[in-house]
Amino acid sequence: MPASTAWPILLAFGIALCFTSLVTSVGVGIAGFLLVCCGVAGWAKQVLPEEHHEMIAVKARRFTPSSVRTQVTHIQVSAVHRAFLPVESYAVTSGLRGGIAGGIVMIFPALLYGYLTQHSIWYAVNLLGGAGVAHWTNATTADIAAFHWNGLITATIIHAAVCTLIGLLYGAMLPMWPRRPILLGGIIAPLLWTGLLHSILGFVNPEFNARIAWGWFALSEILFGIVAGVVVTRSGKIRTHQTLPFILRMGIEAKEFKDPKGDGQ
Question: Under a CB-based contact definition with an 8 Å cutoff, are residues 260 and 103 in contact?
Answer without folding.
Answer: no
